[in-house]
Design a protein that fits this description.
Blueprint: H1 3-12, E1 19-20, H2 21-28, H3 32-40, E2 47-49, E3 52-55, H4 57-71, H5 76-85, H6 93-139
Antiparallel strand pairs: 1-3, 2-3
GO molecular function: DNA binding; DNA-binding transcription factor activity
Pfam family, one: MerR_1
Protein name: MerR family DNA-binding transcriptional regulator
Length: about 160
């Protein structure tokens, strides 16, 4: 029995609120299939009761954390690593915080680089767009444009010239 499943059994023995898979899925805006996927990846381990899955408040919190981590770019392997650092009673919390600090710093650097690349690409596209508009104006070809870089699909004169 995995550590996750052992904790789930211990949590369900308390008299706390329990959730069915449909209830949990609806509350979090995901599908039951997504929850089963996270179970298959051993990120969640509900207990079985009356032939169905039963989730504790801890499972709910864990699922919310999984969804949040995925939404900001963590891989499932990273999520699993983060969750496993917690330990059985939270003794790994400092390790979790250290992992999160390191990983978030790396992700910030990666996103800042992507942002710089996007800015450069936008500058290049704006330059190309301006060259195209100048060419069409010199050629006398009508062209609609939204003025914000979005070219519309206006009919153009047939011309063999290329923008350059």
């Amino acid at each position: 029995m995995t550590a996750v499943r052992q904790r789930a059994k211990a949590d369900s023995s308390n008299s706390e609120k329990l959730y069915g898979i449909a209830e949990l899925a609806a509350e979090l805006g995901i599908t039951a299939r997504a929850i089963r996927f996270y179970e298959a990846k051993e990120l969640l381990a509900p207990v079985r009761a009356n032939g169905g899955r039963v989730y504790t408040r801890r499972d709910r919190a864990r699922l919310k954390l999984i969804l949040r981590a995925k939404s900001i770019g963590f891989s499932l392997a990273e999520v699993q690593q983060f969750l496993e650092l917690y330990g059985s009673r939270g003794e790994g919390r400092p390790l979790q915080v250290s992992f999160l600090a390191d990983r978030s710093a790396a992700m910030i650097a990666e996103l800042e680089q992507k942002q710089a690349d996007i800015v450069k690409t936008l500058e290049e596209l704006r330059d190309i767009h301006a060259q195209c508009l100048r060419f069409l104006a010199e050629d006398g070809t009508p062209c609609k444009t939204a003025g914000d870089g979005e070219a519309a699909d206006a009919p153009h004169k047939k011309s063999r010239r290329t923008a350059g």
